[in-house]
Each structure stands twice: as C-alpha cells, then as structure tokens.
UniProtKB/TrEMBL annotation:
Residues 229-393 form the Spore germination GerAC-like C-terminal domain. Residues 23-202 form the Spore germination protein N-terminal domain. This is Spore germination protein GerKC. Belongs to the GerABKC lipoprotein family. GO terms for biological process: spore germination. Keywords: Germination, Lipoprotein, Membrane, Palmitate, Signal. InterPro entries: GerAC_N (IPR057336), Spore_GerAC-like (IPR008844), Spore_GerAC-like_C (IPR046953), Spore_GerAC_C_sf (IPR038501). The keyword Membrane applies.
Amino acid sequence: MIRGISPVIVSIILILVLCGCWDVKYLDQLTVVMAIGMDEDPDKPGHVVVTLQVVVPSQVSDSQNGGGAGSIPVTTYTGKGKTLIDTVRSMNSQTSRRLFFSHNQVLIIGEKLARKGIGTMFDLIDRDTEIRTDFEILVAKNGTAADILTTLTTMEKIPVKQMYEMVRTYNKMQGVTYPVKALDFIRSLDSDKQQPAAGSIELIGDAEEAQKKDNIEQIKPANYLKLGGMAIFKDGKLVGFLNEQDSLGLTIIKKKMNRSQIDIPLDGEDVVSLGVLRSKTKVKANIYRNKPVVVIEIEEKAHIFEVKSSKVRVQDTQTIAWLEKKAEKQLEDQVAESAHTLQRRLNSDVMGYGGYIYQASPKYWREHSKEWSNIYPEINTVVKAKVDILATGIRNQSYLNKTRNKNR
C-alpha cells in the first residue's frame, strides 16, 4: 500500500511541513525595537518625526555576563516622513539590521502632534501583522516623545522597561491612572459610543541633560520621568489632561481601580487615611422622560492606613461608621467632579456613556446619536458609594494623643 502512494502527494506533504520556517528571523539579523515615539515635524506641516528606542545586543549581553560596566544598552534612531511607513523606511539607512517591532512595549505621542490629531497614524499599526497591538499608549505632556525616549533612567538600564513598569505600579498602588493598550485605543478611535484616553508622561528637567550618564549617577537626579493624569481625546485629537483627582475618578468609573487612598480631613490639620483594598464599580443608564440618566455605583473595601488625630478612637464602632459615611461622601463628590470635568469642560465621552445608553435603549441612541456632543454634557450623573472599613490596625488611639497632652 505504501508503494501505491503518489509521489505528488508525498511532495505536497513535505512542502506543507517545510514551509513553516520560510519567514524565520534570527536575533543577530534584527534590530529589536522596544519603544516608538511620534512627534510633529516642525519644518513640514502634516509630516511626522518618529523616534525608535532599540536594544544594542552587544551591550545587553555584556552586562548580563558581568562585563560592559557603565555601558548603555539602548540607542535611538530618528526618521521623518509624511506617513509612518515612510519614516520607518528612512531609518533602514541607519542600521545594519532589519527593524523588528514585535517586542515593542510603548508608543509615546508628543503633545503637539496629539493636539493636531493622530487618527490616521494608527493605520499601519492596526494593519501590519508584525506589529503587536498589546503595547501601552502614553502622551508626552509639555514635551516631545523624542525627549522621553532619550532620557536615561535609574532603576532600569533599558528606559522603556522602567516606563512600562511605572504605569503598572502607579495603577496598582495609587489608581491615579490605568494602562491603555494600543488595541483598546484604536477601538475607541473607531467607536461612535466612546472616546479614547491614554496615560501621560512628562520629563522633569532638561532634555539634553537627561540623556547624559552623569544625570543618573547622582543620588538625586535633576532630570527624570514622571507619570501624570490621563490624557483625554476627542475625535482623534488631544483635548486636555486630567489632574490626579479627576484621573482617579475616571479610573474608578472605568473599573480599572486596584488600590488607592482616601484622605478624610477632620478639624484643623487632623486627617484619617484609608487604604482601598478592593473596588467594584457598576455603571447603568436609563431613559427618564426622554432624557438619559447614568447611575454609577461604587463599593470599596478599605482599612485604616494612618490616623493623624488625637480624638479619633478607631476601635469604636460608631467612629468607624462615621468615617465610612465621610469616605462615601468624599468618594461620591470626587467621582461626580470627574464626570463633570469630562462632560462639561472637555466634552469627551471617555467614560463610555454612549455605550451604556445604547444598551439601555437602542432606539433612543439611533434617534439621538448624531447630536450626542450636545446631549452628553447635559446627562445627569448620579453617584452612589458604599465604603466598608475592614481593619483598623493594632492601635486604638493615635500616639499623638499622649504627645499633644504632654505639650499642653
């Protein structure tokens, strides 16, 4: 029976097996791109300047083997063009290896370019199979993407690794911002029911000094990178940045909260700080008398971080209930203020109200979607919060009680 197998069939089987390696790429033939930066070209309107942060393989291997002390394992390439593919092609003249984008971790957009509009810049990213869309999107506040990508960092030798982890740590510990993947950003750009948002990053100090090794060899570098509030877009253009409090409120509304802190002000300088352990948000919409209403319900589990007061006895159940009510009121006010900023000042539906309205009443959305920019700012947002304090620590009163009594 084996002898009866057609040589043609055998050939086809072999071709199918062997063709799996036709596009194999070897590391020693590639320039691995870790970060992409996009800025407007100041000399040519409508053109872009692209900066790539790439790994220098020899420096990385030397540092891993204990050698190459003090070496910088990354470099940057810059290209200009009318389209993203133009700039990438122009950079092939600067490297001996093929540019490889599959390991890209961050895309940074300069503020000026973001304000002029970046909608068309994402077509190549969305279309090219080699470029993965799971990297983070950041906006360079008060500066350029090139300045961010040429800044050396203290905690990581590869700067983009530090940026990548900064976004995650800031979200996990403070909740002020949340990571935004390229795929989610592109989907929001293409949606009529939600506008996109992205994190922001800023260079504090001088751009030229930030590139020098001397800067990061100081115990307190004068030039460093810092994350800020969320960058808000509308119709593909940056319309503004949120402050930390409004950004925290947006994180809660978007259900991206991990941990955060609630500071409850008391009399004078006294304050009680709560650490949020878990946060859960429900957003619902309904149509009341032909007007949309959005209800945001928040449940948070917290513990007492710190008591800066000689009057608060945290083991007392009435005190805990009182603190919970104050925390709930503060949380409601904060989220309501965030919604007000996004609705009235920026008029950008990054909260996704359009999607909730569509779920509540597809008929209403079809009838009013074309006038959404006029309806959205006037939507009544109702915020309800429930805070449970689960733990108070091992101390009842603050030690400040004894200290203040001694000083009287």
